[in-house]
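Interim report, section 4.2 (structural modelling).
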Amino acid sequence: MALSAKSSPLSELRIALPSLPLRLQEVGRFVAANDYDATTRSMRDLAAEAGADPAAFTRLAKAIGYSGWDELRAALTEARRPSQISPFSVRAKNRRHGPNSDVALVTDKLEAEAAGLPRISAHAIADAARALHDAKRIWITGYRSCRSVAELLNYELRLFRPEQVQIVGASGPDDLDLGAFRPGEAVIVIGFTPYTNASVRVAQAAYRAGATLIAIADSVAAPMAEGADHVLLFEAASSPGFFPSLTGALAIAQSLAAVTFSLGGAAAKKRLEDTEARLAAASTYVSEKG
Amino acid sequence: MALSAKSSPLSELRIALPSLPLRLQEVGRFVAANDYDATTRSMRDLAAEAGADPAAFTRLAKAIGYSGWDELRAALTEARRPSQISPFSVRAKNRRHGPNSDVALVTDKLEAEAAGLPRISAHAIADAARALHDAKRIWITGYRSCRSVAELLNYELRLFRPEQVQIVGASGPDDLDLGAFRPGEAVIVIGFTPYTNASVRVAQAAYRAGATLIAIADSVAAPMAEGADHVLLFEAASSPGFFPSLTGALAIAQSLAAVTFSLGGAAAKKRLEDTEARLAAASTYVSEKG
DNA sequence: AGGGCCATGAAACATTTGTTGCACGATTTA
DNA sequence: TAAATCGTGCAACAAATGTTTCATGGCCCT
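Predicted structure of the assembly:
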């Protein structure tokens, strides 16, 4: 079984990389970034594109334990070979118990989540996005594990609508924000069983203020979905394991942001580009290499 | 680029196959059945395995309109090249318009994400979880949109290991935490293209300190994956839309937490129950209705 | 049957491949 | 400061690559 401690050539490369000479690091990075070309094109060809000496590739291979470039490339080729075994056959054996029950747990979890995603209603999301598009201001709420989803939504929406989006409670006690809800604004509340009192309070405040309420929840019976103009459902409990799954909620949040952006048209695009340009100017990102 | 928009070289081959000489048909079938080997191994090598003459490969290539085997192989190689990630601006364009384009966008996004999830390596996650289980302390890092994933991971892990988990930079400047990394501790860094400098700094600090480095990234070539003991890959660019998808990263984070919890056994379970009991006592949750 | 045609395998060809020895320069050590 | 070590590019090397040529053998047509 291929389960042994032997790892892929790319991991070997990655682990050895920091302890390598400068030039070898360069070509090592190049190989890692272009491993498909590494398996198909010639060493000299790669060297020309990487702007390095052909010999460096041979030396790199030897430095990480191969007899030469040929052997390293062969390893990369095998690692890339399309798997002939179907994932189902793997699933069939070693169920539940045994040395690899952890792996089975992960596999189950991922498959369950993948199966859950398409059940999300695309129409409902598109409708909610239109509501967001029309909103003068957008408030976002999520407590406990849902806070992460709330923050991602906040982040993405602020990329192209910086002044009009904020998380409830971000700049002080929640209660202050609750009084600020106005008609024409949108309030998003994210949550699932067991529901936190705080999120329900936010939903009620939004409802009373006449703001557009968008609930992202695991059930239409969720208390924060009461009186909501839009309810977007995901399956929190669909996955095996001990914590409810947030993948569905996150997928909804991302779709919501994407559609809202698309509704924003040229203006939104301009805003996003400005933001990206500012980040680039502040050298937030690692610069691209040739 | 030899010819204009032609179909894939493999279909060209299949079409021309019946009108070819006997021997060339055999070779052609072999190429069609083993096109991965055709792109990676040498002509003579293939000939030996197919039980044919090396010259037959050159003749086959010429028979279907290529200048030689090299050119045919180049075409096969390009046809097999993994779909490259297109930059944001390119992806933003060429969207179809129409009344329901928004709905289509959501559907595309969800389907793509569902398809991407099962590609995550369950083994790698299980291994990383074991490393987390053994770690004396766990540091978590994620900037910009990845911060949301980092915070979810932090939240879930703290449910059963409250004193040993923290987000880098949560209690002051990042730099203070970077000096606190120790061998025996684990550092998780989450990120994708374009990579923030800050996340790379954290990864390097972890490496230098001898801590166990776990990278959750979109590529093995990611700078914060260099020297990492575990790399968990997700597809950020797999989904249509304008922002990279975090669903994969989130699924990894949740699986990681679930497996780590399961490794924690009875002790972890006790911890979780205590936490839940405390939250219930503080009446955080909405009480069940009859 | 004979003559032309084409398919086929083996061997020789010019290129290109991965590798290695060597010299130069930078950095470290005594 | 001198010696030693290491990293690096260049150039020459043998091996392997794809291609071509040539001789052979089978096939069809007149």
